[in-house]
Structure formats: structure tokens, C-alpha cells
């Protein structure tokens, strides 16, 4: 598991493209029959990806956690962005089709991931944060998630937001998680942008065509930077940073947060005219 420490806004201002990418961009999350994990010191969130092909892949107990098992003091949200797959939790198996979500609370010991078809494997994106109370395993299909249509074609940001783990959905200690899908012809996410210093956020872009890219925007509203991203890549947004993106074509992304509060709508909006 890769460990990444936090950066101050002043440090980030002076970063080169390469430094921005090595601190915030997470690549190669989906590797055949492997689990990839990055531990971020922003709210101690772990970002990961699992692509089981020919065998089941287990959630390991990472030495850095100094725990008896991964979820001893953590919770985890899982969303499948690939073919049909299964997640088994202490022997109980759950079927996850594309864009279904599973929440696993603190205390569960054995978590394993499998794909139904090696020729069309599941791609599980995972996000884990520290937890202090046990919540049961909860499952949500995309069709059952609370959703809201935002933006317009006129401003190239017509999109549907699906909320899975949140105040009125799957219950957690601090994890908030869902996804956003842009309509054809819309390329902007989260514009107007916002910050929420109470929570960090991570984005994972999916359904980005191989010959297309998303220019992800980060930084303080008056000091924006961009990171060019491809399919199945994640990016960590510090609590003081905007997180927004513009694609060369429409795409989808999973967002997830952890931190001080649990309120999806708690955002400090940034006026487009104030961006620099
Ligand atoms: O704090 C909330 C997050 O930034 C995202 O949910 C925003 C988003 O998906 C969008 O506007 O498209
Ligand atoms: Zn946000």
C-alpha cells in the first residue's frame, strides 16, 4: 500500500505537473487479479481498485494499519464499474452489477472480490475511512439510489448525481459516496465549483473513452491547476481545494468524502468569476 502525506496550499502552488501528478493522481488501480491501495493522509482515506479475473482477490490486512484485520477500525464503500461481480463478506456473497454499491462496516473480517466472467471482469472501486461504530452491511442498486439531475446542455454540464452512502441512504460513520454521469454533449462536472474544508474528497473517473481525457481542476479557487486524467484513474482533493473537471467527451465519475461532517449539501460555492 502506497502512503501519501498531506500538502499545504502554499506547497501545492509551486508544484510542477509531475509533482502534482505524483501527489494527487492515482493511476493503475485496476490490475488483473490484484488489489491496489493508496493511503491518503487527507482524513486517512484509503483509495483502491480491485480487478478479479481468474481468481478471487482478498482485502488484505495492511501492516501500516497495525490492526488485526483491515476493517477492525474502518468502514468501506465499494462500487463496481465493470462486468458482473461478487463481494463476499464473512461468507455472505453479494452480487454487484455495474454501478451497484456495497457498504461494509467495521468488524467484518473476510472480504473477497470475484468476477462472474473472466472475459468481462468486474472493476471494483473502493474507498475506506476510519470508523468508530459498527453499521451493518448494506447494498444499493443504481436504480434504487437517490438521484438528482443538475446543470443544463447550454452550460455543457447536464448530469445525474446518484447518492448511495449518505444521510438518507446507506448509513455509515463518516463515509459519503455516490457517482455522477454526464449526458451526451455535457463535459463539465462540478462547475460552478465548491470547496468544503470539513471534508476531503476523492474522484474516480470511469467510462472515459480510451482516446479521450478529462482535465481535472484542483487548487484553491484563486490558484487553480489541472491534471489530465484517463479512464479508471482517481484523484485526491484536499479539503481546501476545488474539484471539478472538463472532459473531451462525456464520462462518469465516483465521488467520495470523509471528514468532519456527513452532510452532502454542505459546500462553499465558488462564483465562476472568482476563479483564477
Ligand atoms: O461534494 C460533492 C461532490 O463534489 C460531487 O458530488 C459533485 C458532483 O458530483 C457534481 O457536481 O457533478
Ligand atoms: Zn465536493
The radius of gyration over CA amounts to 18 Å
CATH topology: Jelly Rolls
For the record, the CATH class is: Mainly Beta
CATH architectural name: Sandwich
- Measured as a percent range, the helix fraction is under 10%
Small-molecule binders here are:
4-deoxy-L-threo-hex-5-ulosuronic acid, zinc ion
Order of helices and strands: EHHEEEEEEEEEEEEEEEEEEEEEEE
* Classification by helices and strands: mainly beta
Major beta sheet, strand line-up: 1-3-4-11-6-9-12
How far apart are the termini?
A: 35 Å
Can you count the helices? 2
**So, the CATH homologous superfamily?**
Jelly Rolls
* Arithmetic mean pLDDT: 98
Query: Quick one: how many beta strands?
Result: 24
> How many structural domains in the coordinates?
1
Main beta sheet strand tally, sense and closure: 7 strands, mixed
State the shape.
Answer: globular
Residue runs with pLDDT of under 50 for 5 or more positions = none
Beta fraction:
35-45%
EC number: 5.3.1.17
InterPro entries: KduI, KduI/IolB_isomerase, KduI_N, RmlC-like_jellyroll, RmlC_Cupin_sf
Protein name: 4-deoxy-L-threo-5-hexosulose-uronate ketol-isomerase
Function: Catalyzes the isomerization of 5-dehydro-4-deoxy-D-glucuronate to 3-deoxy-D-glycero-2,5-hexodiulosonate.
Amino acid at each position: 500500500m502506497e502512503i501519501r502525506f498531506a500538502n499545504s496550499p502554499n506547497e501545492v502552488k509551486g508544484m510542477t505537473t509531475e509533482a502534482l501528478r505524483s501527489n494527487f493522481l492515482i493511476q493503475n488501480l485496476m490490475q488483473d487479479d490484484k488489489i491496489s491501495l493508496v493511503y491518503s493522509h487527507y482524513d486517512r482515506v484509503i483509495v483502491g481498485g480491485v480487478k478479479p479475473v481468474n481468481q478471487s482477490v482478498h482485502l488484505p490486512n495492511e501492516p501500516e494499519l497495525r490492526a488485526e484485520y483491515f476493517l477492525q477500525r474502518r468502514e468501506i464503500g465499494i462500487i463496481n464499474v465493470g462486468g458482473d461481480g461478487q463481494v463476499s463478506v464473512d461468507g455472505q456473497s453479494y452480487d454487484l452489477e455495474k454501478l451497484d454499491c456495497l457498504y461494509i462496516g467495521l468488524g467484518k473480517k473476510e472480504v473477497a472480490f470475484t468476477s462472474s466472467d473472466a472475459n468481462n471482469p468486474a472493476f471494483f472501486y473502493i474507498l475506506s475511512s476510519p470508523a468508530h461504530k459498527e453499521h451493518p452491511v448494506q447494498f444499493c442498486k443504481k436504480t434504487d439510489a437517490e438521484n438528482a439531475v443538475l446543470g443544463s446542455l447550454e452550460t455543457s454540464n447536464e448530469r445525474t448525481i446518484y447518492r448511495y452512502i449518505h444521510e438518507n441512504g446507506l448509513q455509515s460513520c463518516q463515509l459519503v459516496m455516490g457517482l455522477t454521469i454526464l449526458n451526451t454533449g455535457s463535459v463539465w462536472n462540478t462547475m460552478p465549483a465548491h470547496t468544503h474544508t470539513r471534508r476531503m474528497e476523492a474522484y474516480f473517473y470511469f467510462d472515459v473513452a480510451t482516446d479521450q481525457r478529462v482535465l481535472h481542476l484542483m487548487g484553491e479557487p484563486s490558484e487553480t491547476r489541472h491534471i489530465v486524467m484517463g479512464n479508471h484513474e482517481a484523484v485526491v482533493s484536499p479539503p481546501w481545494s476545488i474539484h471539478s473537471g472538463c472532459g473531451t467527451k462525456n464520462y462518469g465519475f465516483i465521488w467520495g468524502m470523509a471528514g468532519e461532517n456527513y452532510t452532502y449539501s454542505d459546500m462553499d460555492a465558488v462564483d465562476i468569476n472568482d476563479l483564477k
